[in-house]
Every structure is written in structure tokens, then in C-alpha cells.
Design goal:
The complex is a heterodimer of chains A (117) and B (174). Chain A is mainly alpha-helical and 117 residues long. Chain A is 66% helix and 0% strand. Chain A has two domains: 21-79; 82-117, no CATH class. In chain B, 70% of the residues lie in helices and 0% in strands. Chain B has helices at residues 2-5, 9-30, 34-50, 61-80, 106-115, 118-129, 134-141, 145-173. Classes of the chains: A mainly alpha (117), B mainly alpha (174).
């Protein structure tokens, strides 16, 4: 076969068209639509996953802050516990074993001595 | 094309109407039946619309679309047939380069092409009609350049035989 034959074949092939059946477009259209739907579904799924992740992080952050604010250790550490030994006070007890109002000045002095007013 | 990029169905239909007859004709040369050619054309268009954003304007848009269609046809041929092409250039006699075609109709061409083995038909189509180089054919089909050349020579030989047979048939009938 010569180049002349090739040129003839090319010419015949390039100038010819064949009309496809009308069903071909319907088939293509349905493929394109299902692809669009699939892409949308993937986008929704990704957005949903992102929203769930953000929600989990937000709840964790809020809960963590709440726990921090209500941590009993923080209050315990801020308060310095100093026992007051009342036995050191030279307060004479009444006969009925109640403290006498007359000794109030001595009590005040005793509290002042341990730093409490 | 911008509307097609946005996925506008009307624009897609317009592009389809414009190129479907041409693409059917190309697919018919690669595939044996109308149905499989139509499947190739539909899948080709689907891939064109799916990848239209990848077309950066380098080369003609029609050329880009044709390449996608031919690749789809090659993929279908690979799926259906085993494209075994192992004959090397050294095993083949010198080809006869004399002219054999006076006039040929498209239907006759397609009929002759469909009688060629898939490997011959594919390389003949790619080289003679689509204008691919042997290097490009080798890359697309995963074969050596020499195999591509040898397959073309064998395809030409077979085509010559078929054309002669056809002419002899005509002479016999008349």
C-alpha cells in the first residue's frame, strides 16, 4: 500500500460521520447525573464529618473549662490550713463549762496572737 | 466550554450534538460492532466532561477530545482482546508499496478494518488515520517502536490481501 492509499483512506475516514442512537445521550446524561449526585453526597459527607469533629472539639473544650473552674484541688491549694490550738489560751472555764463573756478581751488577744481578727 | 466546565447540562448536550457523529465514526473504526462503538463514544464523552477542567488550552480542544476517545477505545479493546503483538521488524518481508486503492467508500473501509485482527486494526487506525507516530503508539500500547512498525507492515499486507479479494470478488460477480 502506498502513501496515496493512506491519504485516500484518511480522507474517507475523516469526512464520514455516523449518527448515534438517541438512547446514547440518555445513557450519557444519566451517567453524568449520577456522577453529580455522587459528588454531592461526598461533599455532604465531608461537611458532616467536619461538623461532627468541630462539635466534639467544642464540647470537649467547654467541658474541660468547666472542670478546670470547678476543680476542688484549686480551692484546696489556695486555702492555707492553719490549726488554732485553743488549748494554749489561758481562759478559765466557768463552772457550767461555757466560755464567759467576761473573757472576751482575752479571746480577742489570743486570736490576734495567731493572726486572725 | 465554560458552561460545560460548570456542569451545565444544556451546554453538554450542545457539545455532544456537535461531536457525537464524528466520534461515533472514529469509534466504529476501532470497534467491531455499532453497540460497542456507541459504548466507547458514551464513555469517551463522560470522561471528556469529567476531565474538562484539566484541559488548559494547549492544542486544539477537538484534538484533546479525540485523544480521550481513542484512549477509551484502546482500553475497551484491551479489556476484550489480548493485544499480543510480539512480531519484530526483522521477521517481516519487505512491504509492497504499490498503490492498490482507486476508490473506497467508508462502509467498505470499516468492513475491511473489522476483518483485521485487533492489533493490526488498532495500529493501522492510530498511524494511518489518527496520525500518531510510532513512538506515541508504542507508549500508548506499551509495546516497542519496532513492534508497532512491524504490526503496521503486517496490517498493510493484510489490507492489501483483503482489498484484492474484494476486487476479485467484484470481478467474479460481474
Amino acid at each position: 500500500m502506498s502513501d496515496k492509499d493512506f491519504d485516500k483512506i484518511r480522507e474517507v475516514a475523516e469526512n464520514h460521520t455516523i449518527q448515534p442512537r438517541s438512547e446514547a445521550w440518555a445513557k450519557l446524561d444519566s451517567k453524568l447525573k449520577s456522577k453529580k449526585t455522587r459528588v454531592r453526597m461526598i461533599n455532604y459527607r465531608n461537611i458532616s464529618i467536619a461538623a461532627i469533629m468541630i462539635s466534639i472539639l467544642s464540647v470537649t473544650a467547654v467541658f474541660s473549662m468547666y472542670l478546670k473552674d470547678h476543680d476542688p484541688q484549686i480551692f484546696a491549694s489556695n486555702e492555707e490550713f492553719r490549726p488554732i490550738v485553743l488549748e494554749e489560751l489561758s481562759i478559765e472555764l466557768d463552772e457550767d463549762q461555757f466560755y464567759s463573756v467576761a473573757n472576751i478581751s482575752q479571746l480577742k488577744a489570743a486570736y490576734a496572737k495567731v493572726g486572725m481578727h | 466550554m465554560d458552561s460545560c466546565r460548570k456542569g451545565d447540562a444544556k451546554a453538554q448536550k450542545k457539545l455532544y450534538d456537535m461531536y457525537a457523529p464524528l466520534f461515533m465514526s472514529i469509534a466504529m473504526r476501532y470497534m467491531k460492532s455499532f453497540q460497542s462503538a456507541e459504548d466507547v463514544m458514551v464513555m469517551g464523552f463522560f470522561k471528556i466532561f469529567d476531565n474538562i477542567n484539566k484541559y488548559k488550552g494547549e492544542g486544539s480542544f477537538e484534538g484533546w477530545m479525540k485523544r480521550i476517545l481513542v484512549n477509551e477505545a484502546l482500553m475497551q479493546i484491551r479489556k476484550r482482546n489480548n493485544l499480543r503483538m510480539t512480531v519484530e521488524l526483522t521477521d517481516i518481508d519487505k512491504p509492497d508499496d504499490s498503490s492498490v486503492i482507486d476508490d473506497i467508500a467508508y462502509e467498505e473501509l470499516v468492513a475491511i478494518l473489522s476483518e483485521l485482527p485487533p492489533g493490526y486494526r488498532t495500529i493501522f487506525n492510530m498511524y494511518v488515520i489518527e496520525g500518531y507516530k510510532h513512538r506515541e503508539i508504542a507508549e500508548e500500547l506499551g509495546i516497542s517502536i519496532n513492534t508497532s512498525k512491524s504490526q503496521l507492515i503486517l496490517a498493510k499486507k493484510k489490507m492489501r490481501e483483503l482489498l484484492k479479494k474484494k476486487e476479485l470478488g467484484k470481478a467474479y460477480i460481474s
